Each structure stands twice: as C-alpha cells, then as structure tokens.
Amino acid sequence: MPVVQMSTTPTAISIAGCASGTALVTLDTSVGGAGGGAGGVEPERGNWTGRFDFLLSLLGYSVGLGNVWRFPYLCYNNGGGAFLIPFTIMLIIAGLPLMFMELSFGQYAALGPVAIYRRFCPLFRGLGTGMILVSAIVMLYYNLIIAWTIFYMFASFRTQLPWQNCELEWSTEHCFSYVQADQCEASNGTYYLRTCYNSSAAEENNITEMALHALKRPPAEEYFNNYVLGLSSGIEETGSIKYSLAACLLLAWVIVFLCLCKGVQSSGKVVYFTALFPYVVLVILFVRGVTLPGASTGILFYLTPDWKQLANAQVWGDAAVQIFFALSPAWGGLITLSSYNKFSNNCYKDALIVAVCNIATSFFAGLVIFSIIGFLAHELDVEVKKVVDQGAGLAFIVYPEVVTRLPISPVWSILFFVMLLTLGLDSQFALMETVTTAILDKFPNLRQCKIWVVLAVAIFGYIGGLGFTTNSGMYWLQLMDKYAANWSVLLIAISECVLIAWIYGSQRFLNDIQGMIGKRSRFWNCFWGIMWQYITPATLLFILFFNWVEYKPAQYGHYIYPFWADAVGWTIGLLPVCVIFLVAFQQFCQAPSHLSIRERLKHLLQPTAEWGPAGRPCVNLHAERYQSQNYDGVTNTQILISNPGNPPDSVLPYDDVGNGNSNGNGNFNGNTYRDEATSTVVDVDALPVATVGKLPGPSILKTSARHSSNQQQAQQAENGKHKVHAEVSPSKQPLIQPESESEQTAKKDAPVVPATSAAPATTKVFATGTMSSGRECSTMSTFANANGSA
Description:
Blueprint: E1 3-6, E2 13-16, E3 23-30, H1 51-62, H2 65-69, H3 71-77, H4 84-109, H5 113-120, H6 126-155, H7 178-186, E4 190-192, E5 195-197, H8 199-204, H9 207-213, H10 219-228, H11 243-260, H12 264-274, H13 277-289, H14 295-303, H15 313-327, H16 333-338, H17 347-380, H18 392-403, H19 409-442, H20 450-465, H21 473-483, H22 487-517, H23 522-549, E6 555-556, E7 559-560, H24 563-590, H25 597-604, E8 622-631, E9 634-642, E10 650-654, E11 662-663, E12 666-667, E13 672-675, E14 680-683, E15 689-692, E16 701-706, H26 711-718, E17 721-728, E18 735-736, H27 741-749, E19 764-765, E20 782-783
Parallel strand pairs: 1-3, 8-15
Antiparallel strand pairs: 1-2, 3-17, 4-5, 6-7, 8-9, 9-10, 10-18, 11-12, 13-14, 16-17, 19-20
Helix pairs in contact: 1-12, 1-17, 1-19, 3-17, 4-15, 4-17, 4-22, 4-23, 5-6, 6-11, 6-19, 6-20, 6-22, 6-24, 10-18, 11-20, 12-19, 13-17, 13-19, 14-17, 15-23, 17-18, 18-19, 19-20, 21-24, 22-23, 22-24
C-alpha cells in the first residue's frame, strides 16, 4: 500500500508501497510545551497544593457577606420559613447547574475566562473579557467594605465602644443614646437632645412632651455616617478623602496582596482560616444569642412560615436573584478557581458540597441574626420589624448597637467584625485571582514574575478605590453595587448556557466531564442535559425579566440619585455587554473574506484547534474540517492534516458515518466515527469549517496512536517522539498535494522511524487539533497518560 510518512516539517513527505491495499499516513511529531507545541515551553500555571485548598476557596467565594446580611432579611420579608422552599428550588434549577457547568468548564481546559473563550468560541471571545470587567469593577469597591470592617475591628479594642454614647465630635442633636437615656431615667430625669434634664427643668420647659415626639437616631448610625464615612448630602458633593478610611483600605489591599502573592499556592493555605473561622464565630454568636431575652421572639419572627407568600411572584424572584448572586456564576471566579484543579478532580462533588453549605450557612446565619435582633427589640420595647435591616445597615448599625448592651461588648464586637473580615477576604481573593489569571493567561511569560503582577493589580485596585473613601464614596458604592453586576451578569450567564448546551452540545460537554470524573448513568446525563438546555436558561430569563420589571432608580435610604448618576450606572452596567458585541463584530470582520455570512458565523462558533482537555500528554497533530460544495448536490466533508501554523501537508476525505450511532462508550450524534480496534471516536462536527473545491468521493478516516516499548523507541518517546497513524479505507486513496522541489529535497533528508511490533497503548480521541504535553490541547486529540493508559 502507499504509505505517507511526515516529520515535523511540512516538506518531509514520502510515499512508499505496501501490499495491504490501504493508505497509511504516518506523522512523527515532537511533544511541545504548554503552548501547544507552537513555540517555547511556557511557565507552568500551577495547581492547588491540596484538594481542600480548592474546596475551601470555593466555599469562601460562594459563602460571603450576602449570606449573613441579606438572606435573613429576605427570609423574614418573604414568608419566613416558607421562603426556604423557593430558595431551595432555585438553587437546584439555577444556582447548582451554573456552578457545576463553570467548574467543569474551567477544570477541563485549565484556563481563565479570557483565554478559555478565545479558544472555545472565537465569536464570543469577548464573553471572558466581560466577566473580567465585572470582577474588576466589583473588586474596586468590595475592598472598601473590608476596610470598614478593619476600621471597626480596631475601634473595638477599647474598654468602651466609641459608638456607645453620643459623642459631641460626631453626633448631631438627634442622636439618642439608649444607655445614657436609661441612666437618666434611673435618676428620674428626661433625656432630650443629648442632655439629661432633671424632673423640675423638664416640667418647666415641657421637655417631657417634646422628648416623646423627637427624632431619634441611635449612636451607631451617626457614628457610621458621620464619623466613619463623613457622609455628604449627595453624590454630587464629593468632599475630601477620609484618611482613616484610606489607611484601612491600604491595609486591606496589603492583606490581599500578601495572601495572593504566590497565587493559589499561598491563598490556598490562608482559606483554611478565612473560610472556616466564620463558622466558629457564628456558632459562638448563636450560643450567646439564644440565651438573651427576646431571642425566641426574633427567631419565631424569622421562621414562622406564611404559606400564602408562595403564590407571590416577588418571593420567587427574590429567591432566584439571591441564589444567583450568592453562588456568583458568570463573574469568572468559578472558572478561574477550577482552572487550577487537577484534571481528574471531582468538580461535581465539590459543586454539591458548596451548594448545600451555602443554603445551610444562610439559614443558620438567619437564626443568629434574628436572635440578636429579637434581643434588641426587647431592649427597645418595640416590634421586631421596627429594628430589622439588611446590608450595611445590619452590619454597621444594628449589630454594633446590639453589642453595646452586652457584657464585655468589645469582645463580641471584635468577633463579629473579624468574621465579616474573613467573609469579605474570601470573596476578594477570588475576584482578584480572576483578574490576575486573565493577565497571566494572556501573557504567560509573566508567570515567572507573578508577584509583580499581583502587586501591580493591588496598586491599581487601591488607587481606583480611593474615590470610595471620599465623603460621597458611599453613594458611589451603592450605585456600583446596583448596576455593576446585575443585568450584564445575567446576560453573560444566558450566553454561556446557549454556547455550551446548544452550540457546543450538552451531550458532548457531558462526555468531556465524564472524561474527568468518570462514567455516569444515563439518568445523570439526561438530567444535566435538560437543565443546561432548557430549565436553567428559562430560569435566568425569568430572573432577567423580574429585574427589569422591578427596576427602580438608584436610592440610598431616603436619598434619590440624580438622573445623570443613574445614566453613569447604566453605562457601567452595560459596559461588559458592549465589549462582548464589539469583540464579536471584530471577529466577524476578521473572518476569511471568501466565506459567506452563514459560513463565517458557523466557523466562528466552532472551537479553535487549541481547544481541548488540559493536563494530557499530546501530539502535535492539527486537523481542520472542510466542506466542499457542488459535489453531486451533496455537501462533502474532508479532513486536512497538517502541522500547526504550517501549510497543509495532505488532505484526507472523511465520510459522514455514525449519524446517531450508538457504541459501547455511549450515544454520539452527528459526524462521528468509532475505531473498534482502539475504541476511539472522532467527532467531525467539532472541527472548524471552511469552504474548498470539489473533493473526490467520501471515505473513512481512522486514527490511532502507538507508543513504542523497546529501548530505542522509549528513548525517542523520552525525547518527545510519537507516531500517529491516519488510515484510509482501501477503496479510497488520500488526496496528496503535489510536492514542490524543496519538499522533495526535504523528504530525502527526513529520517524514517521504523515501525515496531509493540502493542498499542489504550487511547482516547476527543475531537481534533493541536496536541502538546502541556495543558493546552486541541479538540481532536489522541492522548494518553504517562504510563500509556488513557
């Protein structure tokens, strides 16, 4: 039979005769580095040093401040204990599927958001950039919340908490200290406008009556607004930088830098404390809270179900929004964290554990918060709903007011704010790691000086965050928090579902996942396929529609933002979406001009030759899918095999076989072929598409890989030599392009490696493209483990 032998240079082509009547194409290639064999060896990205490093980092990222200061309020406001039903359902149909999808996606390719979408879908490569923009914007203001907790933590190291009384330095005449009021009433006086009047003075000036109707603000509220923030009257009054906050913000960035300076190797150790310590504090606060008077009233107020609320669309909308933003899919953090996993890590189990921990933590935090709020309501002799709050108001006003009424109040204050600090740091770690990973994936050579990249990002983050330390900083923070990660994140998540479940194919993606975590049942495949294709995207559309219907202009307390401020917010919120469309338009314009609009779109929606599984020894084999038209009125498919970055070496026709074919490895749809000898499956639909001229009749392409076991071949394997065979059916000959004179000269000089009788190793074929020994492989790759088994 004619045998085509090719070396790593495209000119080393020769045809030899054989007697078996089949055409055999042999390609000897060298194992490349992380860059897919197209250049020098790139520095390693690194991995988690232990399995629990990733799990705790993921837990810390997913369980954040919102679980403590937002979920309890939502639960109280939406039917109490009944709210757990829609919350759990939304977790199953929206939160968990998105988390599992992104964890699998990132782990499979071992790339950050920007790099992974550049290879996965060129038309939507801007999707990764959009994620990075969201994380970068949130990263700027999120660290300010950490700075607040640092400020309060240091302020708590006193015998008496500074917000316990109305100090003249920062309080107004409406400040009402309940501690001073109780002391005044004990002496038969009347507390009014920060002053204790004796009974005779109060009676003469009618102070008792005025005190009953006076505006009262707790010291903790005035301390936060006037002393900590120095809050101005509106967003247009910028004021000056609060240097105390700027110093705390600097300390926050120093902590983040020190924890991330070595990437996941350093942050993976810090999370053992930052992810677990909040649970210790919550247990301590719960034990203390339930022993306080009025705690049972608060807990009952939190848990008592109002089943009628389940018929309210608002309740389901709030549950969907909370679980979506609690697990933080489509921000890039989940893809980034999982990209440092080992290829065989069970990301499915990790997703289940974190999802369950998220809802359990939210519920338990509600018990803690409402036991404390019940105590405050008892102390003030008011209803629980009069003191309940959410967000910053709960963390920096309500709770600080509560601890002033507890024995050894500084201890309880320190514990609470250290817990908030660790909760915030875990989320900030993931946000910053997402940004730095994007930079290092774009410029791999910078991995050797990663500490300087992290330092540069930290400096940029600090400078960008200084604006939030001004007197109008709180208004800007609330504006960014409302718009930065809202509609854009939802649109990104919907796009993800469409790209992975519909364009790439849910079954194909599930096959990729099972290549990592092992074979699963048919029910498991059907369940996740239905979720990703139908239920989860529909739920995301519901959340998006709900957010649009419930939209209200930005507001902070009673302050209504001016129109221009909302316009700025919309601009910030839609910036990631605009980037996605601009990049898509650029990619479309740069596509080959000879292709029609439909062919361009089809070409750009296919994974590139660099796409594929991570962490597998691969071979430099590149294949592309071509379609010829006007061949007896039928579209014909062929495969082009060449070295990456080089002109084509040979063209092999490919037959449309295996449509709907079922084999031992499962059901495969589309253009697939199963090699019974090696149990490999080739998926032609995965290949990029281009238009070529009329081809000869279709035939079958088989692929297999053989690894030598004798000493000579073992040495060649050690030097990076492998042999890949592409076999064509006897009735059809491969279409070999005419050799140029230079090719013929190179062919004579090319060494021919003799075949051996060694048994072939067990191999797997995922699709096609460029393969290397690094972490970047193509969509169709023949790869095996170091021991020769797949």
